[in-house]
Every structure is written in structure tokens, then in C-alpha cells.
Amino acid sequence: MAFFFKKASTAELDAFYPVRRECQVDIPKTRFRLRAGRTLSARRWHAAFSADGHLDIASVLRRIQRGGVHPAIKGVVWEFLLGCFDPNSTFDERNDLRQHRREKYVRLKAECNKMVPVIGSGKFITTPLVTDDGHPIDGAPNGARHDVSDKKVIQWKQFLHQIGLDVVRTDRTLVFYESETNQAKLWEILSVYAWMDNDIGYVQGMNDICSPIVILIDNHADAFWCFERAMRKLRENFRSTSSLMGVQSQLATLSQVIRTIDPKLHQHLEELDGGEYLFAFRMLMVLFRREFSFVDSLYLWELMWAMEYNPNLFSSYETSSTGATPPNASDKELKAFGKFERNIVKTGYTEQHGALSVFLVASVLETKNKELLKKAKGLDDVVNILGDVTGNLDARKACNEALKIHKKYLKLHLQNVKP
């Protein structure tokens, strides 16, 4: 019976995220399984709402942290986990907000369409539209040859073909992206986002974050705003200057964490010229997308987001406030926080502490502590050892180990900073 359920679970996942036949041999093995009584099902999700639409977020977080989210409801659940909606809002309030956002997206897309008419056409481009100094390139498609002098417009147009090239390479093993219409949807959302976000624009890797959202959420506008919220969580990964990539701040935090909880390992990595932890760059940049199968990466993300969840997330985004939690929160209030965020509230440690992903990488390093100390004679050895483990990670176990490391780190760090 257990074997039958396992086969049924795998078949159900395959039906939601079908892989192209010719790619099935090359993709990483999927470890995630739908588990009755653990995975958040559609029935339990709908039962978590009151008659007027208030969501019992505490019960939802518990279920996700036990067994992830059923594919049939991932999109709508992610909207809450990423702060698109307030769990204390009603159905009517969320419908009004959704309609407002859809109208705003239409306006943003219309602005982009005036400059590059291919946007919104169901097509996309992979060739440059303008030169580095903003002059139109002969043969540029869809009427995009008018002279450009605005620096923002020039930079944005320069992004578009790079987005197109990245779209073609994104999740190409999935049947979903055999469709040019679906590729165009991903390109459109990334292109409109690059126009809206003057600070970040577009950076390679954002396509890996956006792709699952495009697959899970049918409506273009809803997918756009869900991606926009995901980028609020991850934007520091993609912010860069002439001398610094944003994810390096997380690498610095990772260095501090390992130095605190495992000084011997940190010293060994420094001796190998790996004290900047650049070998973890890709893991943190796109949240293990390249280390896991598509299904497992989605499971890992929702586990992390559930564990990092703060019920003040929506209000902090809508009002640009800090979303800080008042001290001495009651046990009832704490239930609405994810396990990771709860650690921070309980300790009262409000300084920048790094995302759960930092502690996830730390847990991987600790898992391979002995092997790294014994066998790693250079950075190539470190990369190979970590590559072996990340491909076989159990996402839930790894997240729970990350929580333990986080608790240990906060305890030791607070001891070190006491006057």
C-alpha cells in the first residue's frame, strides 16, 4: 500500500510539472513526496479561512513546515507567504486589492508597449534593440527604432535582449516552456519589472526566481506582483555596484556564522583561500535552484518562506514601515510567526542576521565538516564535496538543521556582544 501511494504521489507531481521526454534522464532525482496528513492540501487550505476570509495563518505555517504545499494550491499559498496579502483581510478586501494591482500592471505594460510594441504580443526578443550609447540598431523589431535620449529608457532597452536570452535557457527541461507563449509570459513579466525597478533593473538569476511563479500563477498581473514581492525578499542578492555584488553581504554573514559556531572549519577554509565563501555564491543567489530538481526547489522555497514568515510582512510592504514585532509578544502571537522568525523575536535580536538560506548553507557545511577538514586541500575540493551533498539534500531536514544552527549562532553571538 505504501509503495502504491508513493507511485501515485510521484505520478501526481509529474502531471503538474511534466518534463520533456528527452530530458528525463538528465534531471536531478526528486525527493519530495505528497504526504497525506502532512502536506498542506486544498481541503485544509480552504478550511483555514473564516466565513468572511480571514486566514488562520498559524495552522497553515505548521502544515507547510511539516510537509510543504500541494501543487494545486501553491500559487495562492505563495501569495500569502510572500506578503501579497494580509491574512487578516477579508475575501472582499483581497479581491479589491487584486483588481487594483491588475489595473496598475496594465498601465505599466502599456508604458512598456509604447516603447517596445512586442511587449504584450505573446512574442519576445533575443537580439539587441539599441547600442551602448542608445542608438537604434538596424532591423530592431516591432517599431523600436525611434531615437532614445533618456538614460533610463536606454538601459531598459539594453536589458530586453539579455532577458530574452535567459528566458530561452530557463527550465528548458519542462514541457511548459516548449510553448513560445509561456516563454513570452516570463519575458514580459521580467521586462516590465526591469522598467518599474529603477534600482535593480534586471540581473541574471532573476529569471530562475520568476519562472516557478509564472508556472504556478496563470494571470500575468498576479504573477508579476507575486514576483515583485519575492524580489523584495531577495533584492539585496541582485543589487550590485562597480565593486560589490549584493549576495556578497550574505556571504559575509555566512563567514561570520561559521566563524562563530565552528572556528576550526572557518580557519581551514581561510587557509584554502576560501574565507570569503565565494563557493556558496550560486546557492545563495538563486536559492539552490541549480542544486535541486524543480519540484524540490519549490518545496525548499516554501519551507524557507514559511519558517521566515512574519505576520507584519504585508503591512510593512504596503506602508514602507519596518514591520517590527513589539517585544514580549504573547505565545498566541508567536504562533503566527515561522520557526526561524520566532527565534529572532524570542531572543530580541533585531540586527541584520541574514536570511534562512545563509544558515541552510551553514548546515550543509556542518554536514560535511569532517570531510572538508580531512580531504579539502583546495577550493576545487570544497566545491566538489559540497556538490555531492547538495544534490542529495533532504529539504525539510536541512531546514531543521539550519534552525538549530541559527539558535546556536544567536546564543553565541549575543554572548559575544554583551557589554
Kindly describe this structure.
The chain has 419 residues and is mostly helical. The protein is built from 20 helices and no strands. The protein has helices at 2-16, 42-47, 57-67, 74-81, 91-115, 151-169, 180-196, 206-216, 220-238, 247-261, 263-271, 281-285, 294-307, 313-319, 331-334, 339-347, 356-367, 369-375, 379-390, 395-417. The protein is globular. The N and C termini lie far apart (60 Å). The model is unreliable at 1-8 and 142-147 (pLDDT under 50).
Concise account of the structure shown:
The protein is an all-alpha fold.
List the topology elements.
Layout lengths: L1 H15 L25 H6 L9 H11 L6 H8 L9 H25 L35 H19 L10 H17 L9 H11 L3 H19 L8 H15 L1 H9 L9 H5 L8 H14 L5 H7 L11 H4 L4 H9 L8 H12 L1 H7 L3 H12 L4 H23 L2
Helix pairs in contact: 3-13, 5-9, 6-7, 7-8, 7-9, 8-9, 10-11, 10-17, 16-20, 17-20
Question: Termini separation (Å)?
Answer: 60 Å
* SS element count, helices: 20
Rough outline: globular
Order of helices and strands: HHHHHHHHHHHHHHHHHHHH
Mean residue pLDDT: 88
Major sheet: none
Helicity level, as a percent range?
55-70%
Radius of gyration from the alpha-carbon trace, in angstroms = 22 Å
Uncertain segments: 1-8, 142-147
Computed structural class: mainly alpha
Number of strands: 0
Residue share in β-strands: under 5%
